[in-house]
Design goal:
The chain is α+β, with helices and mostly antiparallel strands. The chain has four domains: 170 residues, no CATH class; 59 residues, Beta Barrel (OB fold (Dihydrolipoamide Acetyltransferase, E2P)), CATH 2.40.50; 185 residues, Leucine-rich Repeat Variant, CATH 1.25.10.10; 65 residues, no CATH class. The protein is 44% helix and 16% strand. The chain is built from 18 helices and 17 strands. The strands form five sheets. It has a five-stranded mixed beta sheet with strand order 1-2-3-5-6. It has a four-stranded antiparallel beta sheet with strand order 12-11-10-16, with no helix packed on it. It is globular, with a radius of gyration of 27 Å. The termini are close together.
Length: 489
Amino acid sequence: MAARRSFKSDVSFLEKLSMGAIGTHKVFENLSTQGHHPIELERGSMSFKIWKEIKIKRIRVPDILCVDCARRIESRAKTSLEISMSHSFSDPERGWDYGLDDQDYVALVVCRKIGEKPIEWQAADPIQYISVHSLREAYRNELVISVTPKGAEEGFEARITWPAAVAKAAGVAASVTRERIQYRRGADNRVISLSLLKQGLRLTPLVQEGDPLVENQVLAAVVPIVREFLCPGNITHTHYVERLASSSLSERYASAKALSVYPANDDIDQALSNKLADSDEHIYVKLEAAASLARHGNGQGWSFIEQCLADEYLQNRLEAVIILGEISATRSSEILSRVLMDRDQNPEIRAGAAWALGELHDRSAIDTLIQSFVSVNQGIRAEAARALAKLAEEFSPEILRRFPQSRPPERPGISWALSRSGRFQLQDVLDLLVDDDARQWAAFLLGTQDQQKFVHEIERLRNRDPEVYFAVTVLWKILTSWIYGLEEY
């Protein structure tokens, strides 16, 4: 039973992580549409990846930075729209606004589950923004509702809510008074009434009579809410060079990252190099400075990242590996391939290198990933297979050509990657039937695909190899049966 609870916990965590990542992607796209120049500021905020063995404690910063106006945006994805944050009254680093500045924004986005898999979420419009300054002002004026979990001891997190009235469906604002907002629901013309008094706190209307409304739109709140905010576009690289000397750790981190966007020049590279030479600087600021230098083709950056791959702290090694997976360059692939094949390196770091190679989508990594399937470590093999599956989306012909000459321990990973991509034809599989082991994996390849894709030409396989044909049809029968995937609980 313990293992089952652990599995459920992992799935629940992945669901929350995935919802947050999809919500952040949606906000990122919305900002781009408005004319901002967004980059991911908090690493991992747009990714589903979970690192189980090595926990990275990153610098707490908002999810997104607009390079052109220096505004930072924290994305908050929710299944039901509300303006709320977790908060600790005993630990300032777990306070609702820790790491946020007054000029930052919080973006609200609603996500809906669209499938059974933990990562199957869809973010919906509208995206709504609230300035941190407004949230803090309302908090100071006690225009919030604080709820602490029942039975919680000191140190547990509370939930801070800024009361709001939200449209549950699209429609039109019918009337707006001091006491309530009424809107006519578009689906059935029914009038919905929302009180503007929440637990003694009065809400300010944000719409007027006759305004069209969309589902999840905030109609009234204790804070102002906007759908967009202007990007003046007046920030240059000089701003970030100066902020590299800020007393704020989050500002130095953001500046080191933002400078990667600008073309290399002497001022930028010198400022970044100075960060690498600063023995008192935080390692993650230095890594971001190194990554920016590497993107500029500066050898100092590459050398520092490689040094971090031998750091005494595994979380610093893993961060260096993840960063390499973000730098689209031949040298990134070469370094990651060496890490993956280094048997003296920590297995989780090697697995991270495999994952990062998949992020780069570099065909030169195909052979290294295939060779890593002989590793005794399951985590390395699993990440290499996932990475190869990403490459198979673009380079299936190259991977298929390597299959006949591959060793038996390598074939499960190759087959799984190809099966996930589905980028092959029946003739490709017939060309793989070079020995008994290959025939078994060829049966897996076809048997895990949609039967309709091959049903009209499957007779060619029966004529060529009746045993493989039988195995494929049995797999199709099992995998399409209603009992497949049925659980006892």
